[in-house]
TrEMBL record:
Keywords: Cell junction, Cell membrane, Gap junction, Membrane, Transmembrane, Transmembrane helix. Residues 42-75 form the Connexin N-terminal domain. A connexon is composed of a hexamer of connexins. One gap junction consists of a cluster of closely packed pairs of transmembrane channels, the connexons, through which materials of low MW diffuse from one cell to a neighboring cell. Belongs to the connexin family. One of its GO terms (biological process) is cell-cell signaling. This is Gap junction protein. InterPro entries: Connexin (IPR000500), Connexin_CCC (IPR019570), Connexin_CS (IPR017990), Connexin_N (IPR013092), Connexin_N_sf (IPR038359). One of its GO terms (cellular component) is connexin complex.
Amino acid sequence: MNWSGLESLLSGVNKYSTAFGRIWLSMVFVFRVLVFVVAAQRVWGDESKDFVCNTRQPGCTNVCYDHIFPISHIRLWALQLIFVTCPSLMVIAHVKYREGKDQKYVELNQGSHLYANPGKKRGGLWWTYLLSLVFKAGFDTSFLYILYRVYHGYDLPRLSKCTLEPCPNTVDCFISRPTEKKIFMLFMVISSALCIFMCICEMIYLIGKRISKLLRIRHENQRLIFAEQHELTNIAPPRSQYRRTDPTLTESQLSLHRRDKIREGSATTTL
């Protein structure tokens, strides 16, 4: 399978992703797609050819192989990678829709733009981006659960017992290179879990940033409303009350000065 087309298509998501989204995309292509293409396919390439059971009963080996490996790990991981990367196309499609809508608006309104930045995560694009994160985390979680249920855990035993027809009795079956396959399986499981963690961190970051922005706007609106309803008044006393008395005046002069102030106050009251 050629993954270069999908990689080149999803590389455009970096322009609209947060730091967590860029880390997620790097982890997908470095730790999952690259390992899947380079190593995992070769490790599981001999799972059917080198699967051996200690019987020569016709059809017994095929039945036992189908029972032990209901679905190939390679095909399951390929489906997982396709389903996990597809939600990112929702964001690209939404941005392209915005760009087309903005272009039509520019043609009809003589150069004025409908969106200052079509790739800015605001309005419907914010919800599309958040929904893509939910889908990515949900698909990864679902495939990890399917892998756990189908193979009864994340382990590959060296010896498997098979009692299905047409086997004459209990048959011992052996998997080729079980330790190496187990290591690769655990690596893919851990990388999937890390991708789920990055999606959850990005969702928390987006929601927290949105809530803080809404709280900041609400605080600014409340401050403006309070300023409009309560106009500022001059509540400071007049500066004449803070006049300092000359320390060089004698006691008689001070008494005369006080009498003058009292007279001025009574005259003001009378007026």
